[in-house]
Amino acid sequence: MDHTRPATGVIGLGSMGMGAALSALRAGLPVIGLDLRPEALATLTAAGGQAATDAADLGARSEVVLVYVVNAAQAREVLFGPDGAVAASRQGTVFVICVTMQPADAQDICARLAQAGMLAIDAPVSGGSVKAAAGEISMMAAGPAAAFDRAAPVLEAISATVFRLGEDPGAGARMKTINQLLAGVHIAAAAEALALADAFGMDLAEVHRVIQSCAGNSWMFANRGAHVVAGDYTPHSAVDIFVKDLGIVTDAARGAGAPTPLSDAALALFRQASAAGMGRLDDAAVALFLARQGGRRLPGDPEEGA
After folding, report:
1. Quick one: which of 55, 63, 62 has its CA closest to 35?
2. Average pLDDT, the chain
3. Which of 92, 135, 213, 288 is the most exposed place for a label (fewest CB within 10 A)?
4. Structure pTM?
């Protein structure tokens, strides 16, 4: 067993998981991937990775397992369900849980992993598909020092920054909740601003360029605004992801007794866009929804000209 090149399993080869898998391969790590989509497995194997038949097969072959599924329920299924990874894994395998979920779910899953003799890191990620592909994501991570030590070659390969937030699981999930509050509200605000600019008859490319040098700019305005200007709603992060994530934010806030009026409004917007058939489009498509509400069509609108 070469601890400088640990066999790395990646469960979930969406835009973030695929980015991690390919980054690990570039760093010379052996990578085993699992995804329900044959085309994702084909991409991985074409790059030099291996495909697992199920989560148990992946767990048996991995020293570090990155989990990039959609939610806590899926994480529990691939870890502890029939043919799950944990039962087949060697004692001391490191599980890096990169799923956006309620802090209580992160605490529960990491506790169950520890009880099974595994090492667990609560490590949601941020940075988007471009940074994931470049191995430059940020990780908000909490777990025992031994887990970080064993997973170090993998974490270095897939991330630019690992924020170590202590040993207690849930700290990563809490930080990700704050991040997603800001991200979701900023996407909604960017969409509203660009829909208003379109209603004013302004050149959206010019608006996008100018605002990036002004105080009203945000990372999300710069990033998602480019999608709106290009009329490209390829789902790097879909509308329905923020229906889920802002739902986590508002539920956690209610549990903490904290008011979140802006998050509530943004969540309502994402839900409305999803109900209008935009759930699987890029989350910038909330701008399409707002423009339609005003009787307009933005570039790239699937119903443009309808």
Report:
1. 55
2. 96
3. 213
4. 0.93
